[in-house]
Amino acid sequence: MESTDAAQGASLLDRLLRPAAAPAGVLIMIRVIDRLNRDRFRRSLDQQFRLRRDVFVTERGWTAFDHGAYEMDAYDTDDAVYLVTLDAGETVVGGMRLHPTLKPHLLSDTFAHMVDGAVPRRADIFELTRFALKASARNSRTYCELFLGLLEYGLGEGLAGTTALMRTLRIPVIQNIGMKVTPLGLPQEIDGELQTAVLIEMSEDSLAQVQRSAGRFESVLEPSALRNASMR
Amino acid sequence: MSGLAFSHFQTVLDAVEAFERTDSLAALRDRLTAVIARFGFSHFCYATPPTGIRPKFGGGVLLNGWPAGWFDHYCDANFHQHDPVAQFTRKQSRAFLWSEAPIAADNAIGRAVMEIAATDYRLHAGLCVPIHGLAGYQASISFAGAEIDDRLEARAAMEMIAVYAVNRCNQLRTEATVRRLLTAREREVMAWVAAGKTAWDIGCILVISEDTVNKLVASAMRRLNACNRPQAVAEAIRHGEIAP
User: What's the rounded Cα separation, in Å, for the pair A203 and A160?
Assistant: First the structure.
């Protein structure tokens, strides 16, 4: 399959000046899957659950969420929104899940003790969970592009931010690419890892910074995602 | 969270805010030194490991809060090569106490490094926080003092303080290399002007007076050499001050 470079007819100079191209078979775009289109994108959704099994059950040992071929929990409902990274072959190589904080969610149900004060519950704040990249797709560009997808989607939906539980020492990693992270409580040990409840801000400034980090300034969302947003 | 954790978290939030307000590396260093005193730490050092191109430790230091004598001594004697903390941190993904860093039986100099730090510079105990980037281990920030609070909540607070101090340090260092025309406030206001907001709107959004907004726009226009707002917006975008 031809690369996006060839398809866009980029000049030789463009290609020389651009940061090194992503390894073959990595990100082409981010697909947004929600209750309106989950039937249409059944295959991608399925691949996303399998990827989560590989990363969370097999790699990280979260055996409590082992559902055979899938990793799933109580929040994989119709309210969940999945952002998945598709490679050139339309295979899911990465993804994350967003869930409205106005509904019961992981932080409010199970990890409220990680938050100082009330768990944020607002129409414009979603919870981010199950951020995962296929081992072969773990490079800085794919990583940045997944955050670009989150920012683009979030800004398009009018989200102020996403809450998340993350390993404390991953915070510098995402701050480094341009994400603004605000702690919601002190780090605490969860299953042998030091984690922190955080609020990750959605802003144009973050988008610009992450675009610079990714070396990619155009939209990363699948065009139909934009169509879906206007349908709501 | 427990009562102790609650008050430590407030300390963290205050520190994060204070770091954001620092406008120079020197100010950040002073602020960080003041913040960590709460947990019994008197000094710190944030540094990347020596590389083939830059083999001397001194060249990789990003923010130096060590006692002057110790920093010089450490660099002159090339202690980094034998420092057990420096060796241990490269393989860690979590913060650790200096006392937790193993010292190889044949590493006499390594033992000496720790003893000299303690005896001559009152750095009896320390906490080292490894900082990882996308490509893995990147740098460490070490905190030390005569008598430190090594309880769980204090360590948790210190890790967060480390994360945000490091983040601010990196921002300041980047800002220093990228020639910036506008102040952060001016940039913020111009971003809203570019989005089509009126001065009154911007005043509401940023919780400042309309007058202040107009003053910020005027000073931004001066710095950008612009005669009117549309030109200021165009220039700001051209200079990379605001996103297109």
Answer: 8
Q: Which of B125, B153, B141 minimizes the C-alpha distance to B28?
A: B141
At the second CATH level, the architecture of A22-231 is 3-Layer(aba) Sandwich (3.40)
pLDDT at A17 over 80: no
* pLDDT for A70: 92
Q: Does B163 touch chain A (CB under 8 A)?
A: yes
List CB contacts (< 8 A) between B135 and chain A. 140
Q: By the 8 A CB rule, do A34 and A97 touch?
A: no
Q: Is B160 on the interface with A (CB under 8 A)?
A: yes
Contacts of B192 in chain A (CB under 8 A): none
**Residue ranges of E strands in A47-201:** 66-67, 70-71, 81-87, 92-100, 125-133, 161-167, 181-183, 188-190, 193-201
List the 89-148 stretch of A: residues with Cβ below 8 A of B. 113-114, 116, 140, 143
Q: What is the 3-state secondary structure (H, E, C) of chain B?
A: CCHHHHHHHHHHHHHHHHHHHCCCHHHHHHHHHHHHHHHCCCEEEEECCCCCCCCCHHHHEEEEECCHHHHHHHHHCCHHHCCHHHHHHCCCCCCEEHHHCCCCCCCHHHHHHHHHHHHHHCCCEEEEEEEEECCEEEEEEEEEECCCCCCHHHHHHHHHHHHHHHHHHHHHHHHHHCCCCCCHHHHHHHHHHHCCCCHHHHHHHHCCCHHHHHHHHHHHHHHHCCCCHHHHHHHHHHCCCCCC
CATH class of B3-177: alpha beta
pLDDT band for A58, please (50, 70, 90 cuts).
very high
Domain chopping of chain B, boundaries: 3-177, 184-238
Q: From 3.30.450.20, 3.40.50.720, 1.10.10.10, 1.20.1440.20, which CATH number describes the B184-238 domain?
A: 1.10.10.10
DSSP, collapsed to helix, strand or coil, labels residue A9 as coil
- What tens digit of pLDDT does each residue of B51-60 get? 888 888 888 9
Displacement of CA A146 from its chain's centroid (Å): 5
Supply the pLDDT for residue B179.
59
Q: Which residue has the tokens 């899938």?
A: A70
Residue type, B90: R
Q: What is the CA A117 to chain-centroid distance, rounded?
A: 26
Which of B6, B9, B11 should we substitute to test contact with A (largest number of A Cβ atoms within 10 Å)?
Answer: B9
Q: Is any Cβ of chain B less than 8 angstroms from the Cβ of A176? A: yes
Task: Please give the structure tokens belonging to residue B171.
Answer: 């921002």
Q: Where are the domains of chain A?
A: 22-231
Q: Is A199 helix (H, G, I), strand (E, B) or coil?
A: strand
